Amino acid sequence: MKIIKTGLAVTVALATLLGFDSCKPKNAASAVSGDAAAKAYVAPGKYDEFYNFVSGGFSGQLAVYGLPSGRLFRTIPIYSQDPESGWGYSEETKPMLNTSHGYIPWDDSHHAELSQTNGEIDGRWIFVNGNNTPRVARVNLSTFRTDEILEVPNSAGNHSSPFITSNTEYVVAGTRFSIPMDNANGDVPINTYKQNFKGTVSFISVDKTTGNMKIAFQILLPGIDFDLAHAGKGPSEGWFFFSCYNSEQANTLLEVNASQKDKDFILAVNWKKAEEYLAQGKAQKVTTKYAHNIYSEKTHSATSTIETEVNMLDAKSLEGMCYFIPCPKSPHGCDVDPTGEYIVGSGKLAALIPVFSFQKLQTAINNKDFEGNYGGIPVVKYQSALYGEVPKPGLGPLHTEFDGKGNAYTSFFVSSEIVKWNVKDLKVLDRAPTYYSIGHLCVPGGDSKKPNAKYVIAYNKITKDRYLPTGPELTQSAQLFDISGDKMQLILDFPTVGEPHYAQACPADLIKKNSVKFFKIEDNANTYVSKGEGETKVVRTGKRVDVYMTVIRSHITPDNIEGIKVDDEVYFHVTNLEQDWDIPHGFAIKGNNNGELLVMPGETQSVKWLPAKTGIYPMYCTDFCSALHQEMQGYVRVSAAGSNVPLLFSTGKNLPPADSTAK
Amino acid sequence: MKKVFGIFIAGFLLYACSGGTKENNANTTANSDAVSATDNSANPSYDPKRGEGKFTKVDIGATLDATMADAGKKVYDVKCSACHKLTTEKLVGPGWSGVTSRHAPEWIMNFVTNTDAMIDKDPAAQAQLEICLVRMPNQNLSDDDARHLLEFMRKNDGVK
């Protein structure tokens, strides 16, 4: 064995020395060089170096992958019901999906943003936007669960969200669709857009300790479409930049009608100034309605509160707070480099990338170097704010991330490639094809002050022939490129859950050490907890029946329940008594037209069941937990509505078999 | 090219085999443990009386400490009663009656706080696993919890 091992080692060393330069990519199918597999290979039992948090697009979820392996670890439900974990089915989690429109078990999530301290990723939380019914969610990275969801009023299509400031002071939310404001009469003809439709950007404050969100203020803006955003940093700290399109204010056939003007805008917001105006009482209190949902790890349950007011700052009447910078052809991405000096706009229909200078912008503002105003907001002259343009970089520039070494990586949807260019001299350095039609891209920490520039990951909209066909719908995918050298090197394709819209990545060390292993049963403050089998019981209150239940390897207590009647409203409150890592128990009962539960160690979760027919209903643990998992089962007897079968519950009573009809 | 590539991977795998596997041990399954357990039971340095863990000497009084025993009862109700009866009857695990005469105090406290390592090594724990077929869960007891539990076991065994 040893000889063989040594022999192999020599071969490996030789192979490595000789290199694989002869395997240069020749076409799309062979665009991978020889050592790619080794670079993306993470041996069984070994950890990946990075976490990659990938938005699930219209699946409304967030997927967690390892890099460089591309292995999927977890899908975190945020806006969507999740049958696997019971998210949105259990009584404890239902309030998380409450909105001013009622219960909405789905959303379209686009962007994920990791929390930062001093402009660097701190690994505490990740924020995710909900586009459709405007919401912002905060996921706790010690539990990998959604802790909070805040609805955004006076908004529609919450697209330019949830980008954050350098110390996570604020997470922002800008309207994609302008609409009549919530407190106005919205029953107006659609072609009164210019008169009645408004846009807003919201600044949501984040509590430093708890992470709890609150809408600090909204800024009232002309009715246009706000697209993407990024905070300033370093010299531009205190400013926020939003790309906007449809300055034509079209309300129909936008693909033509919103592409008329040569330039749209980047909106520059001085949020420190906005804070001053807010402190001076310059905000108008506006009535509206929005849900604020918080999940507690103490009670293991969520509460939903309807808020009724926001502070609105009017951009046109508050001087020095907002400026428009003209930006060519329907800008999409709006990205600030790690130094905070350069703001990259990407006109998705433009054949160039404009790079703006924060310093020049400040000079232009001080000199009132304006070309006029738009909706009462000063428009800075294009040339006065422009640092320079990257000429003819490719077709359809969308998004830019940075490597912290002075280079930028921009995705090109139409020409389907990533282009690396130098921010200072605006010269293109390298280009790599993507398969196909890349949207966002991600460098770990690539929108922070300190990128960790080992990889760039492409998130592609279309895969066509890249994977085994699966009917008309094909997987979407990501592609991993090594960027440690001068040239980008494709090393891995991996399929993704839902549309991998935007994603962020960070070193695993920031997060893995904080991972919660179980919840302390002593600290469980759920109203329906059973701390030990001695506390299990079944309580009838009219038609409502509460079953206080425990689970532990490998039985359910109580596992024999009688005296339930048709039309009862039964709640199983299941406490997992285990106090060890990776031992959840599931709970399901036959015929429940709701869902199942997955209960973490030390946690209590409740599922509602409306028995509609008499009979015997088996219940069991759904998550394979032990050698006797298959024995982890029980029965519930359901009797007729008027029956007088007494309420009985037990486990392991070992009563002699009896024939109930003989009694 | 393909061949070179294959060898490369094979070499990589072999190399990886010799690496440390510290993280892997935390999450081993019952089956793989049973195998490794057989190897370890022959270990002559292992003290089957004391077991393995942080407790080398536990001082117990001649009489019962009732306060500690009461605290131990509370731990039992939440974390142990689901699987252990106070009689000799086996539920998921063995009944507790007589446990303090079957095992030394150090063994008991090590077992309830260092469960996985003990199940992997201790001959008595392994023999019990063959009967119960369910690995005792690590219930993450504090040192105080463990001591209180021991006192409650003593009370259950008739110490006054």
Automatic annotation (TrEMBL), chain A:
It is found in: Cell envelope. Keywords: Copper, Metal-binding, Oxidoreductase. One of its GO terms (cellular component) is cell envelope. Its EC number is 1.7.2.4. The keyword Oxidoreductase applies. It comes from the Bacteria. One of its GO terms (molecular function) is metal ion binding. SUPFAM superfamilies: Cupredoxins, Nitrous oxide reductase, N-terminal domain. It holds the Pfam family nos_propeller. Its main location: other. This is Sec-dependent nitrous-oxide reductase. The gene is nosZ.
From TrEMBL, chain B:
Gene3D superfamilies: Cytochrome c-like domain. Keywords: Heme, Iron, Metal-binding. It comes from the Bacteria. Residues 30-44 have a biased composition (Polar residues). One of its GO terms (molecular function) is heme binding. Residues 67-157 form the Cytochrome c domain. This is Cytochrome c.
